[in-house]
Amino acid sequence: MQLDSLINKGVVLVNPSQQEPAKTIVVVGVARGGTSIIAGSLSHLGVFMGNACDPVYEDTRLSLAFEKKTKEKYESVIAGYNQQHDTWAWKRPSTLHELTRIAKKLRNPHFIFVFRDLLSVANRNKISMKLGVVGGLEAALDDYKKVLRFLKKSTYPALLVSSEKAVKHKQEFVNALIDFSALTPTQSQVDKAISFITPDPSEYLKVSRIDRANGWIDEQKLQTGHLFGWAYQAHNKKTIELSIYINNVLVKTLPASNFYADFKGKVHPTGECGFSVNLIELGAKPSDLIEVKAKDDDVTVCGIDVDLNGLKTWLIPGQVQKQVKPRGVVNLALLQKGLLRGWAVSHRHDLYARVGIYINGNKYAEIPASILRKTLITADIHPTGECGYEFNLKQFNVKPDDELEVKLEDSEVVLYSRKKMFPNLSSWSAKAPSNNKGKQ
Q1: In CATH terms, is domain 327-418 a member of 2.60.40?
Q2: Which residue intervals of the chain bear CATH 2.60.40?
Q3: One-letter-per-residue 3-state SS of the chain
Q4: Under CATH, to which class is 213-319 assigned?
Q5: What is the reported pLDDT for 6?
Q6: Domain spanning 7-207: CATH 3.50.50.60
Q7: Contact, 292 vs 215, CB < 8 A?
Q8: Which residues are registered as beta bridge partners of 345?
Q9: What is the CA radius of gyration of the chain?
Q10: 57, 126, 212 from 208: Cα distances, Å
Q11: pLDDT digits over 335-389, tens only?
């Protein structure tokens, strides 16, 4: 007997998965019990999660409809998701209170039940929600009893996961998710799911706090040395006192209480949440470490990360580079000939996008998108047109049926991802298809 078979890896299949391709995956667990690890892993494996995003991965649209806190009907959202996706997933800790109702509404429900050490759950609620530990232990135990009562009566496919073991045995956990959900992810997606799993993700620790502060800064004004934005207590929208640090030294405190009409209603009920700081007067340089924290807090305000992207000197307003959304394309017609060609832009037009090329899950090359493409100037894609890239796959013995992923480094933008580029091609095409109307 191999010793590995005796190791408890924390994943148990209770009811086997159905063979039907269409299914809905429901991630269930107590609040702050590890459900975000499972939901985030599913998202990285390519499963549609509604409007869920890092770091909590909760679909607020479906969840608010389920809890009748919006005009949208729960059934209507489900019907839309079913029409657009064979497999999709939903995570919301409150679902454990109505599992039977949920099971009847969803198409071929597959449940993933997440378990965590009771003291860890209670202590996380103490840290994040300011609740008592003993009361937290009792509440978590009651919630887990609801899960067990459902499991005893249910015949729905179910996977039981220990969140602590999932962090320790990442590969086995991700493999179990793939098998249970019948997924076919790329190697890159598998790698992302594995790297996503960490014991104490910093962003989650910040946003899961009931006393956290939310904020925003104007990135264009920031380049001129003007720290301008808004901030408030996330839970109750109350005014917060801000502390400005330069190179870990406290240099200024001020309330985020200035009134700005643009913030009223859209950002804050009264609009009295603004702040303005002249960094130049404080002696700050763009290369300095600049942090904005709530007074007496150890972490920066959620949403306020001062990143000046290598700016060497403060700019005057006319020099400010507008922030743009990183994006790009791959010329699919030329790709069939073994030529990877396209264009890509980074978050600023004065910085070349860096295009990462991954073959069969491994990073093969990284090239700047700096080739002049005059047509992109007239198309209003880039002011100088210097955003093209080109890489000859044939010269590096890449085959048409190899896995290829092309993405913008330092961003989540994937330009192209296929498990096999052209599985029906034994060799690269000699001639591009006739619908190739122009070079990119």
Answers
A1: yes
A2: 213-319, 327-418
A3: CCHHHHCCCCEEEEECCCCCCCEEEEEECCCCCCHHHHHHHHHHCCCECCCCCCCCCCCHHHHHHHCCCCCCCHHHHHHHHHHHCCEEEEECHHHHHHHHHHHHHCCCEEEEEEECCHHHHHHHHHHHHCCCHHHHHHHHHHHHHHHHHHHHHCCCCEEEEEHHHHHHCHHHHHHHHHHHHCCCCCHHHHHHHHHHCCCCCHHHHHHCCCCCEEEEECHHHHCCCEEEEEEEECCCCCCCEEEEEECCEEEEEEECCEECCCCECCCECCCEEEEEEECCCCCCCCCCCEEEEECCCCCECECCCCCCCCCCCCCCHHHCCCECCCEEEECHHHHCCCEEEEEEECCECCCCEEEEEEECCEEEEEEEECEECCHHHHCCCCCCCEEEEEEECHHHCCCCCCCEEEEECCCCCEEEEECCCCCCCCCCCCCCCCCCCCCC
A4: mainly beta
A5: 63
A6: no
A7: yes
A8: 327
A9: 25
A10: 12, 12, 8
A11: 999 999 999 998 777 778 899 999 988 888 889 998 999 888 877 788 888 899 9
Measured in residues, the chain has a length of: 440
Q: Which two tokens stand for residue 231?
A: 């901030």
Is the per-residue pLDDT at 126 higher than 50? yes
> Which residue in 41, 46, 131, 139 sits closest to 91, CA to CA?
41
* Token code pair at residue 53: 């995003």
